[in-house]
Amino acid sequence: MNGKTAFVLLSGVLSGSLCACVQPPEAAAPAAPTPPPVAAPAPTPAPVAEPTPSDRWVSIQGATCERLLELSPDDRAAASLFYIGYQAARFRSRAINVAAIPNAEEWAESYCAEHPGRSAVEAFRQAYRQTLRQ
User: Fold this and answer.
1) Is residue 106 within 8 Å of 124, Cβ to Cβ?
2) Per-residue pLDDT at 111 exceeds 80
3) Whether the Cβ atoms of residue 121 and residue 68 lie closer than 8 Å to each other
4) Is residue 64 classed as helix, strand or coil in its secondary structure?
5) pLDDT digits (tens, 9 = 90+) for 74-107
6) What is the pLDDT of residue 68?
7) What pLDDT sits at residue 25?
8) Using CB atoms within 10 A of its CB, is residue 87 exposed (0-12), middle (13-18) or buried (19+)?
9) Listed residue (5, 14, 120, 134) closest to 66, CA to CA
10) Can you give the pTM of this predicted structure?
11) Helix or strand or coil: residue 73?
């Protein structure tokens, strides 16, 4: 047998036998038991985007006090500013006392609570006369 061939065969046999003798590290030591899985808190649902009010018509004079009071605080504040501006235009006001706006909003909401079937326009007309017109 040629010396080179014997060397290659012998090294192949030795490396194969060495691999067979070496135990994997996992088999040498028993693995620690894994802790039971902890229940993850339920994911919070993603916020639902409100549809944009495109082509949604609202009757300015037909909106009731009851509907105004059902609005979220932010929407009610926006509606209040709209109706105050609407009344300022109807009364042909050239200026408005900005500090009196919260009083007008409060007055209109009180009126609406007492008269839910009346129109929001009427509530803000009365509020404008009571608090903003001078």
Assistant:
1) no
2) yes
3) no
4) strand
5) 999 999 999 999 999 999 999 999 999 999 999 9
6) 94
7) 55
8) buried
9) 120
10) 0.58
11) helix
